[in-house]
């Protein structure tokens, strides 16, 4: 195969890959806009599932290309979205034990986010780990709070989970 034939074969492949990246970015910004405009806490928590999955896909693409700055920004945005959904839920339905819809979905997705960030921390270089560890500590705190809201009697006498130290390895503590 000559150079011209190789170019004819490679060009459509490169164009398809670029289109996929642009479509993914458009999907992510569309989901983010829809999430930001949602005022219902349960709907916001459910939307976070789709938005978070799209953010994880984008972070995975950035990770594969070695762009850990983008990975960090995406995971920080995910943490901020978890915070926003949690705050709206707490205002609307302060009794999560009786009205758990939304809280359950949010807690399960935070668990997924913790697994995602743990995988990223395993391969990230040392210079990119501190901000990711801060995001992980925040997600761990959100997860603990959500579990306390959902199961208040089970967590009555237990202290809150301490945050992971920023200089060492992530705190891989397992929740019951």
How would you describe what is shown here?
There is one protein chain. The longest helix has 35 residues, at 3-37. This protein is mostly helical. Helix content is 72%, strand content 0%. Mean pLDDT is 85; it is low at 166-170 and 172-176. Helix 1 (3-37) runs antiparallel to helix 2 (41-64) and helix 2 packs antiparallel against helix 3 (68-92). The chain has helices spanning 3-37, 41-64, 68-92, 103-123, 129-150. The chain has one domain (3-150).
How many structural domains can be distinguished in the coordinates?
1
Alpha plus pi helix count: 5
Strand content: under 5%
Number of strands: 0
Q: Which sequence of SSEs, written as H and E, runs from N to C?
A: HHHHH
Q: What is the mean pLDDT?
A: 85
Shape: elongated
Output the radius of gyration: 19 Å
**What about the largest sheet?**
none
Question: How would you sum up this structure in a few lines?
Answer:
This protein has 176 residues and is mainly α. The chain has one domain (3-150). The protein has helices at 3-37, 41-64, 68-92, 103-123, 129-150.
Q: Notable features of this structure?
A:
176 residues, disordered C terminus, mainly alpha, 5 helices
Write the layout of secondary structure elements.
Blueprint: H1 3-37, H2 41-64, H3 68-92, H4 103-123, H5 129-150
Helix pairs in contact: 1-2, 2-3, 2-4, 3-4, 3-5, 4-5
């Amino acid at each position: 195969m000559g150079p011209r034939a190789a170019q004819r074969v490679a060009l459509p492949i490169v164009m398809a890959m670029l289109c996929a990246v642009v479509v993914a970015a458009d999907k992510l910004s569309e989901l983010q806009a829809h999430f930001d405009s949602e005022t219902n806490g349960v709907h916001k928590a459910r939307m976070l599932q789709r938005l978070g999955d799209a953010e994880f896909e984008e972070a995975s693409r950035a990770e594969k290309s070695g762009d850990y700055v983008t990975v960090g920004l995406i995971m920080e945005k995910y943490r901020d979205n978890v915070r926003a959904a949690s705050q709206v839920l707490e205002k609307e339905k302060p009794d999560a034990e009786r009205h758990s819809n939304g809280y359950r979905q949010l807690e399960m997705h935070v668990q997924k986010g913790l697994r995602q960030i743990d995988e990223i921390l395993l391969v990230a270089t040392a210079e990119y780990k501190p901000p990711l560890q801060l995001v992980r500590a925040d997600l761990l705190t959100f997860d603990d709070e959500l579990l306390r809201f959902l199961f208040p009697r089970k967590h009555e006498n237990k202290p809150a989970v301490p945050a992971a130290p920023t200089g060492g390895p992530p705190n891989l503590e397992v929740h019951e």
